[in-house]
Each structure stands twice: as C-alpha cells, then as structure tokens.
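in:
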C-alpha cells in the first residue's frame, strides 16, 4: 500500500517512505529553487568549451549558487565534496569535477541542485564542447525527447509506471539502452525522497500520481547496453560497454491537470546546440 502524506512545513523533512503532497508554499519554494538551478545551467551554455576544466565549471556553479542565496545540496552530501556533477561521454552520472579539460566533440552533462530556503531545485542538461559526432547528437536529442515524453505522462490519476513505460518505449525504438541503476526521485525539503521514479517500467504499474507530488524525471540513455559500473572513486558511473550516455533532468510538481516544470530554462536554452 502506497502511503501519501499532506505535508506541513515541519513534517515534510521526514524520510519515512511516504509520498509527500505539498501545498502552495511548496510550489513557491520549488519555483524559486528551480529557477536558480535553471539560470546556473543557462550560464553553462557559454562556459562549456573545449579546454575548460570541469573543476572550473564547478567553481562557477558554486559561486552562482551562493550568489543566489542558496547552497549546493551536493556539497557534503554523503561525502561528496563538489557543487555539481559533470559527466562526460561514457560517464552515465555523478562525474566528479576535476582538472580534466573538455575536448572537441565531448558531450557533457552538468547536474546542479541549489538548496534555496529549504527547497531543492535538481536539474541537468547536456552540453556540447565543439561539434560532437552525428550519433552523439542524435543520442542527446532522443534523450531530451525521453525526458519530455516522460513529463507528458504526468497528471493526477496516472500511474508512476506510465512515465518509465513511455521513456523506455521511446529509447528502445532507437535501440538505445535505458539505465536501470539510477532513478528519478521525490524531492522538496529532502533531496532524495520517495517515490523512486524508474525510467523503464510497465504502463499502469506503481503508485497513483496525485496533485501536490514533487519529483524529478532524469532518464539516462545509453547508445549501447543499459549496464553501468562504478569506478573506484565510489561515485563515477560509466557504461560497461564504454558507449556514450546522455541525461536530462527536470524537477516537476504535479498540478490538477498535468505537471509544472520548476526547472525550465528562463532563456529557452532547453537542449543543445545553444
Ligand atoms: N543531482 C543528482 C540527482 O539528480 C544527485 C547527485 S548526488 C552527488 O539526483 F552527491 F553525486 F552529487
Ligand atoms: Co535528481
Ligand atoms: Co540531479
């Protein structure tokens, strides 16, 4: 039995496995956190270039987050010591910023989560360093479509599995692999909360979607097989077959008739080329 809980300010922090249903203050808080997150990614469109290091990009994310009155939720999260994740080419997610330089043709995911006034705005986009291969660009395009097709399933009365079913169908049509080892998640006052939003599922399965739920949808789609492995640093997830991987993420809230995207780009910089 899925349990839901209408949250008041102090209750919503509990990691008790219930799906939280938020009120107007939650939507206001998430809009602000989400818009700051989106502005940070908008800035990245100009910063991602061959030659820049991922550490330099991380510094900009941290500074913009702090300037916006927020803190990077990843900083100190389970021992993670950076302000964002930057995942290049065959890195699926949780790439650690470093002195590594981007090179011509890289496809790059930057994932940011400012924590603003107690609310988490979690979003990622793909970026191109120079001009990637045709097959890389196609993967990125289809991955963006997967995110938006997933969001299009969201409305009260639909099931959580409808999201993953639509994403899986769209990706597998192109013979891409849908990563199973990482999921979207409920969020709000907590960074990662119930439910787990899987990106491959059976339509009609899982809990019912209700107005007031906040969640991320963040499909990771591989050019090859879905399988991933974790590097020795304990964070970096890469494709087992070394194939390219792409991801986009939005934080959304369920409304009476669909979804509100909290992390939409204010400048319309939704996907590359920017
Ligand atoms: N932002 C990631 C997500 O989408 C989580 C990153 S946690 C970190 O859920 F510690 F790896 F940064
Ligand atoms: Co997330
Ligand atoms: Co994220």
């Amino acid at each position: 039995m899925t349990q839901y809980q209408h949250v008041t300010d102090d209750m919503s922090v509990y990691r008790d496995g219930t799906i939280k249903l938020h009120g107007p203050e939650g939507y206001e808080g998430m809009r602000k956190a989400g818009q700051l997150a989106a502005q940070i990614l908008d800035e990245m469109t100009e910063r991602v270039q061959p030659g820049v290091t991922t550490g330099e990009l991380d510094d900009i994310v941290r500074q913009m987050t702090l300037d916006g009155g927020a803190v990077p939720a990843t900083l100190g999260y389970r021992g993670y010591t950076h302000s964002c994740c930057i995942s290049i080419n065959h890195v699926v997610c949780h790439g650690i910023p470093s002195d590594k330089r981007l090179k011509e043709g890289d496809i790059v995911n930057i994932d940011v989560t400012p924590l603003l006034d107690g609310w988490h705005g979690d979003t990622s986009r793909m970026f191109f360093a120079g001009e990637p291969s045709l097959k890389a660009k196609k993967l990125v395009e289809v991955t963006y479509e997967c995110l938006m097709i997933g969001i299009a399933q969201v409305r009260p009365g639909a099931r959580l599995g409808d999201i993953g079913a639509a994403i899986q169908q769209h990706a597998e049509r192109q013979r891409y692999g849908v990563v199973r080892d990482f999921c979207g998640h409920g969020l709000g006052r907590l960074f990662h909360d119930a439910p787990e939003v899987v990106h491959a599922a059976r339509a009609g399965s899982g809990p019912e979607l209700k107005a007031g739920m906040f969640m991320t949808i963040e499909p990771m789609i591989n050019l090859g097989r879905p399988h991933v492995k974790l590097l020795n640093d304990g964070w970096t997830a890469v494709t087992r077959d070394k194939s390219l991987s792409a991801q986009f993420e939005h934080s959304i809230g369920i409304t009476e008739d669909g979804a509100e995207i909290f992390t939409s780009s204010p400048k319309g910089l939704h996907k590359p080329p920017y």
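note: Residues 111, 113, 122, 124, 249 surround cobalt (II) ion (ligand 3) (CB under 6 Å).
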